[in-house]
C-alpha cells in the first residue's frame, strides 16, 4: 500500500472500509492521503480525534482560502471544497447559518411528508408492474430532486435545466465539465431569485430573500446553489444505501418489514455503517501541529473520514436508535438540514417498502459499480428485482395503497 493512499481511485470507491481498516492498522487515528493527484491531506479515522477536530474551530478553522489560492483552477476537488461564506468561522458564517436555520425552520414537516408521498407514488407506478428497476435513476434521484425543488421554490419551467446541470456536475470526472454544470445551476438559480425578489412565496428562497440579514441577490444565489448541490446527492445516496442494506441483508430486511426495526433507526444504522458522504468536514490548521501521531502542516486540509470514524472499534456498541454517528458532521458546522434529509429518506423508504416489500438486488453486490469519488459513497446504479405489483392509487390527504 502506498504511504499516501489515493482516495480517488475505483478500487477505493468499491471497498472503502477495507482501505480504512488497513490505514487504521498501519497509522492509527490519522494518516496522510491524497484527495486527488497532487492534493495531499490528513485523513482522520479515529472517532474521538474527529470530535476533537470538529469541536475546535480555533485550532482547526474551516476557512481555506490560503490553501485554495495555491490550487489550479481545474483541481478536481474544487467543486466540493471551493470556499464560500458558509466555510468561514467569522460573523459572516453566523449570519449565513442563521438564515439557513430560519429557512429550514419554516418547512412544514407534515407538508414535507405529503410532498415525498406525492413524488414517490408516480415514480413507483412507473416501474412497479415491470418486476425490475434501477432504484437510483428511477426512484431515489428523481424523488429527491423533486422534493428539493418544491422546498426551495423552483418553478416547473426551470427544473429541467437545473436537473441537467446537476447530472453534469455529479456524473463527470472532468473538472472543467463539472464547473460548467455548477455555473449553469448558478445561472438558473439567479433567474429564479430575481423573480422571487418581486414575487416571494412560501419557500426557502423567499425566506432567505426576506431574512433580516438583508442578503443581496448574489448572496442568495450562492446559498441556494450550495444547498442544492450539497444537499441533493447525499440524500439520494442515503436512500439507496439504506435500500441496498435491505436488499442484501436478510436480517435487516426482515426486521424492517416486521417492525422490529423502525425505518428511522434503520437510517441511523446506515449512517453509521455506510454514510453517503464517506469523507468530508475539511479543516485547515493555521499552524503546524500534531494529532494522532501525525504531523499536520499549516493550511493543508484535515479531512474527517466519516465512514472510518463511525466504525472505529474503539467506540463500538449498540447502534439501535443511536445517533452519535458523524454522518452530518459535529459541532457548530454540522449540517443544518439533517432533519430534512433524514425525513425525506425515511418517507421515501416507507413508500417503497409499502408498495414493494420483496426487493432483491439483481446482481451480486460485488458487481455494483461505484463512482470514484473522494467524498461521496455513490453507486452508479442500483438494479433490483421484485414481484410485479399493481399501481398505487393516491388521493390528496389519503394513504396510497
Compile the SSE list and pairings.
Blueprint (H helix, E strand, L loop, with lengths): L4 E2 L3 H5 L1 H12 L2 E7 L2 E6 L2 H8 L10 H4 L9 H4 L9 H15 L3 H19 L4 E3 L1 H17 L3 H16 L3 H24 L5 H6 L7 H32 L1 H9 L4 H11 L5 E5 L5 E3 L2 E3 L5 E4 H5 L27 H18 L4 E2 L21 E3 L16
Parallel strand pairs: 1-2, 3-8
Antiparallel strand pairs: 2-3, 4-10, 5-8, 6-7, 9-10
Order of helices and strands: EHHEEHHHHHEHHHHHHHEEEEHHEE
Secondary-structure-based class equals alpha+beta
- How many β-strand stretches? 10
Low-confidence stretches: 396-401
Q: In this structure, how is the largest beta sheet organized?
A: 5 strands, mixed
Mean pLDDT: 88
Number of discrete helical segments: 16
Oligomer: single chain
Broad shape: globular
Strand sequence of the main sheet, in spatial order?
A: 1-2-3-8-5
Radius of gyration: 21 Å
Question: What do you see in this structure?
Answer:
The protein has 401 residues and is an alpha+beta fold. It has helices at 10-14, 16-27, 47-54, 65-68, 78-81, 91-105, 109-127, 136-152, 156-171, 175-198, 204-209, 217-248, 250-258, 263-273, 306-310, 338-355; strands at 5-6, 30-36, 39-44, 132-134, 279-283, 289-291, 294-296, 302-305, 360-361, 383-385. Strands 1-2-3-8-5 form a five-stranded mixed β-sheet. The protein has a three-stranded antiparallel β-sheet with strand order 4-10-9. Strand 2 and strand 3 (39-44) form a beta hairpin. The longest helix is centred in the middle third of the chain and has 32 residues, at 217-248.
Amino acid at each position: 500500500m502506498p504511504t499516501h493512499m489515493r482516495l480517488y481511485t475505483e478500487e477505493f470507491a468499491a471497498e472503502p472500509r477495507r482501505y480504512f481498516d488497513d490505514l487504521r492498522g498501519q497509522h492509527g487515528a490519522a494518516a496522510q492521503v491524497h484527495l486527488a493527484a497532487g492534493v495531499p491531506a490528513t485523513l482522520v479515522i479515529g472517532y474521538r480525534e474527529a470530535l476533537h477536530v470538529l469541536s475546535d474551530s480555533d485550532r482547526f478553522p474551516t476557512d481555506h482560502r490560503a490553501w485554495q489560492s495555491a490550487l489550479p483552477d481545474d483541481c478536481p476537488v474544487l467543486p466540493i471544497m471551493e470556499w464560500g461564506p458558509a466555510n468561514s468561522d467569522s460573523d459572516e458564517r453566523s449570519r449565513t447559518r442563521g438564515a439557513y436555520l430560519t429557512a429550514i425552520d419554516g418547512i412544514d414537516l407534515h407538508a414535507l411528508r405529503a410532498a415525498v408521498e406525492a413524488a414517490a407514488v408516480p415514480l413507483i407506478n412507473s416501474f412497479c408492474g415491470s418486476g425490475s428497476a434501477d432504484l437510483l435513476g428511477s426512484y431515489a434521484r428523481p424523488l429527491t430532486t423533486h422534493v428539493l425543488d418544491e422546498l426551495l421554490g423552483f418553478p416547473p419551467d426551470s427544473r429541467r435545466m437545473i436537473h441537467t446541470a446537476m447530472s453534469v456536475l455529479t456524473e463527470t470526472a472532468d473538472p472543467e465539465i463539472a464547473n460548467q454544470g455548477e455555473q449553469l445551476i448558478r445561472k438558473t438559480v439567479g433567474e429564479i431569485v430575481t423573480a422571487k425578489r418581486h414575487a416571494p412565496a412560501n419557500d426557502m428562497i423567499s425566506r432567505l430573500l426576506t431574512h433580516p440579514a438583508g442578503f443581496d441577490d448574489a448572496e442568495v444565489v450562492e446559498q441556494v446553489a450550495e444547498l442544492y448541490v450539497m444537499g441533493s446527492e447525499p440524500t439520494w445516496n442515503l436512500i439507496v444505501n439504506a435500500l441496498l442494506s435491505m436488499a442484501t441483508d436478510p436480517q435487516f430486511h426482515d426486521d424492517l418489514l416486521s417492525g422490529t426495526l423502525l425505518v428511522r433507526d434503520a437510517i441511523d444504522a446506515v449512517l453509521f455503517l455506510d454514510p453517503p458522504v464517506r469523507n468530508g468536514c475539511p479543516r485547515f490548521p493555521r499552524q503546524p501541529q500534531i494529532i494522532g501521531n501525525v504531523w499536520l502542516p499549516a493550511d493543508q486540509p484535515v479531512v474527517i473520514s466519516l465512514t472510518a470514524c463511525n466504525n472505529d472499534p474503539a467506540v463500538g456498541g449498540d447502534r439501535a436508535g443511536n445517533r452519535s454517528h458523524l454522518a452530518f458532521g459535529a459541532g457548530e458546522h454540522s449540517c443544518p438540514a439533517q432533519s430534512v434529509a433524514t425525513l425525506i429518506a425515511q418517507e421515501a423508504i416507507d413508500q417503497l417498502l409499502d408498495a414493494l416489500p420483496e426487493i432483491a438486488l439483481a446482481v451480486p453486490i460485488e458487481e455494483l459499480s461505484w463512482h470514484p469519488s473522494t467524498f461521496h459513497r455513490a453507486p452508479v446504479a442500483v438494479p433490483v428485482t421484485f414481484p410485479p405489483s399493481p399501481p398505487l392509487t393516491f388521493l390528496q390527504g389519503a394513504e396510497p395503497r
